[in-house]
Design brief:
It comes from Blomia tropicalis (Mite). One of its GO terms (molecular function) is histone H4K20 methyltransferase activity. One of its GO terms (cellular component) is polytene chromosome. The protein is α+β, with helices and mostly antiparallel strands and 223 residues long. The protein contains 6 helices and 10 strands, in the order H-H-H-E-E-E-E-H-E-E-E-E-E-E-H-H. The strands form 4 sheets. The chain has a 3-stranded antiparallel beta sheet with strand order 3-9-8, covered by helices on one side. Strands 4-6-5 form a 3-stranded antiparallel beta sheet, covered by helices on one side. The protein is globular.
Length: 223
Amino acid sequence: MPCRTKSVTAKAKTLKVPNSKKPTSKTQTKSTKKKQTKAKEDTKENRCITDFFPIVSRRALAAKVKLEEFNRQIQKCIETRTDPTENLIVTHFDEKGKGIVAGTALNKGSFICEYSGDLIDLIEAKARESKYEQSGAGCYMYYFNWNSVIHCVDATLPSGRLGRLINHSRKAPNCKTTIFEHNGQPHLIFIALRDIEVGEEILYDYGERDPKAIRSNPWITTT
């Protein structure tokens, strides 16, 4: 009488197993390999474009385009040495002389114009300042720190540029200066701190905190 183990083994040899993954012949092996290769090729061909390029949201793309346009506007004014005069109007005020008012509504963060003049180092700036004082002429010297070095933009001589005409206000400024680097050089530009209405005067804080200068010009702290 055959043992149970051999009997079970014999039956197992004749059992048909559908969808068996193990090939039973060389022909089946080759056929399976071809199918697997074709499936891999199909998978490569059907990959999404996002597998090769990052997904960029519409909001991020719009922000990028806006920033590029913002930079182009500033670069144009710097390279052509002009101001966006369609947005700005030179106005005379009885109590303080010339100033600049908005010719159109300006949104917060808008570029207003450049504080244009001669870019000079600290030594040259102090020499010019002393010369202006001796002659009794006013001066338009703007000192600022860039890359840990003190620079100065001297806009004393009239040039037709509008930045030098923007008046001071410590109490209610509606714009500020910031540094814009172009071709390896710093440029001072004005940016709106808030929305500015048509006809509103453009004002910024000169940043003068020297007691001697304030005593000579008390309007620095009262406006």
